[in-house]
């Protein structure tokens, strides 16, 4: 046996004996009715996993552990340095609180298949809200707190929720983010009006309630008869999670129940190498897919203890915050974004703060959400002296596409690579004509259909968009939207997006959406937004504005206004802080804006004017315009 044989055998079987492999994994889940088979491919390219199966995801995450005698085991540890609070819930306590909340939600008329928007910060009630919806077979859609009201509007109108579950505020280190005014504004603007909002009043800020529509969480929920788990089809949606597309209209990624439960359970053991009852920590946000899968569903379905952390890697109170949490709660693994480690490294490059804490139980660091740059990975390896595993995934896929399957066996770590494909993924790298490239050559990374369980079966109310956006360009394959290469050992490196998605501090954002906002400014004739390299955040957005003829308003005023507009319409998380005014944009003769070349110029990289460029002189103008802002130093 050589290292990697165990992984290779499992991966090969997942493709050659799909039914056998996945039905075996499905045994780890409690079913009311066992699935007839693993895959339903009768409506390809719309695949469904575990047809005929009936289950309840909340039962699998909570009740079954209590029923199995683990009711006193900790399910959730809430650690909130921003409010100075900690709370612990056993599986029994968490099940009971969730069942009571589900009872309250049911009393508001929410039924199987109804949608519920959850607009809440990193507090235990957010996880409870997700699970309470799952308990009733209702479909939740969590909206990240760093988005502006308009982002809520597009989600409300797209999924038409009966109910919104909200908290009065989020707590950022430097300010209280009042959620309720944003929610009120969003409901005013939306075409669809949810019947009710159940609002959790946090001590940090009291929300004003709208009579007849809004209900106080604490008083309304208390004493409601607990709701039982409702059986749903394996193929029924568990949640919708909106993610950035190429336009202002986000894509509603649909997640099913059965495939997701099976995949997450498999991953906790075989990818993350955690045992039930151990403490697991994902430092992300329930507003992102990583939070859905590995703060809430994955660890709980598996019977581990999950830490829910309301804080930052630095500043709450210092760059030792992560070490404190790991040591205090005896976490065996941490999953976070490389940007968090860059932030820690910047403040404490020698890791002095680590020495104050006992990390003897800590076994593995997992990174994802953006490219894991080798210097950060190597720094973390040196500091923590444990394997640092970069793994690649997307909102669409729900769990990992590539990783190092520590629970099976740790394969060699190659900094800069996300290691090898997860079971069910048959990946290829294709050139512009759709032909496979040689090992080591960069191209578009695609996955042969069907994708494994847990991945998205479609987009909410948008089968055509699903097909167009992901399946049309390479028939028979899922287009990941990422470019990279596969080396001779089968290791996959993910280098960049092929579309206008950028990754800012592990947050996925659309430059196309930002361009729509800039273009709506009265003085702007044309615009472009690109992602430029940033030492801390990986990438940050940078805008280019071409003004309408005759505009007399000073450039600086226009720039300040568009910065404000992006913050107001997309949200602070977009981190749009800079724009430059230019006379014209570089374009091809057919009128396509040369964003890639602009990015190379801004990042001070070598660039060549493409053969199709309309007027090469524009590139020099761009370079000159960027220098005062600190870009294009070459
Ligand atoms: N609710 C409201 N506002 C939020 C928010 C939330 N949940 N999260 C972030 N914001 C706001 C911040 O307050 C900030 O606003 P400001 O412009 O008024 O200061 C803005 O959005 C940008 O926030 P952030 O990206 O967090 O930048 P930062 O400079 O405050 O912190 C890091 C930098 C690296 C510490 C931070 O980005 C981080 O922890 N990143 C990890 C990301 C992550 O876990 N991603 C999940 C994928 S695994
Ligand atoms: P999200 O849907 O928000 O999870 O973002 C998914 C995108 O983040 C992917 O398409 C990649 O572009 C990027 N990404 C996530 N993980 C990695 C990784 N480990 N390496 C490189 N890019 C990553």
From TrEMBL:
Record-given protein name: Propionyl-CoA synthetase
Domain AMP-binding enzyme C-terminal: 514-592
The Acetyl-coenzyme A synthetase N-terminal domain, residue ranges: 7-61
InterPro entries in alphabetical order: ACAS_N, AMP-bd_C, AMP-bd_C_sf, AMP-binding_CS, AMP-dep_synth/lig_dom, ANL_N_sf
Domain of life: Bacteria
Domain AMP-dependent synthetase/ligase: residue ranges: 68-446
CDD domains per record: PrpE
Similarity comment text for this entry: Belongs to the ATP-dependent AMP-binding enzyme family.
SUPFAM superfamilies registered for this protein in UniProt: Acetyl-CoA synthetase-like
Coiled coil (residue ranges): none
Gene Ontology CC terms: intracellular organelle lumen
A GO term for molecular function: propionate-CoA ligase activity
